[in-house]
Amino acid sequence: MHGPASYFPSIEKTYGQPVAHWFALIDALGARKHMELVAELKSAHGLGHGHANALVAYRLAGRR
Known about the structure:
Largest sheet: none
Shape: globular
Number of strands: 0
Radius of gyration: 11 Å
Helix content: over 70%
Strand content: under 5%
Number of domains: 1
């Protein structure tokens, strides 16, 4: 794995949820800017910046 996906095993271990859980949360937040999504994951769900950024980057890249 390379890029954002390389963080996924650590994210799942650290927060106890599969990445699909986080993608569903991102999707539920709607059309927001990258850093707005990152900030929401950090403030509302306690994710670290690197993990939140990796999830958002991967998910937004998949929407293109």
